Automatic annotation (TrEMBL):
Residues 1-184 form the Myosin motor domain. This is MYO5B protein. GO terms for cellular component: cytoplasm; membrane; myosin complex. The keyword ATP-binding applies. PANTHER family: MYOSIN, UNCONVENTIONAL MYOSIN-VB.
Amino acid sequence: GIVLVAINPYEQLPIYEQDVIYAYSGQNIGDMDPHIFAVAEEAYKQMARDEKNQSIIVSGESGAGKTVSAKYAMRFFATVGGSASDTNIEAKVLASSPIVEAIGNAKTTRNDNSSRFGKYIQIGFDKRYHIIGANMRTYLLEKSRVVFQAEDERNYHIFYQLCASSSLPEFKDLRLSKFWYLPV
């Protein structure tokens, strides 16, 4: 398969704008510079041509930009599939799981929002290749962090969010008026 090596520049670059999506749309892989949009276009074309499911695997270390790369691929699919304005699928998919993110992310020495979960995002298309829905499944990758916290690292975000919101009236509805945190 196609392999793309990308580096997180830790800043917004103008290489992910709408005009760049349109520049890669309809192109063959290798016709233009390597880009997440070139990989997405190839998967999209093969899905339409062969009528077979396609996968894009985004892998990397903490802070490598995996979530952002997945977001750009979804934006590409929503734009070329004509459904970007209709469904805003990118925002819906990425916002579909804030509780899982809070439970599964922690500040580490290398990344302020390091995900401890792997994510599998499945995007559904109709017969015209427009996005009709998506779902996200998560799985725990780093079980060691459940029972061990390295020096200078924070715990999962949910712990601090619960502490910060404990004085709010809505907190009573959660029936968490008493909870114990047991550091290991």
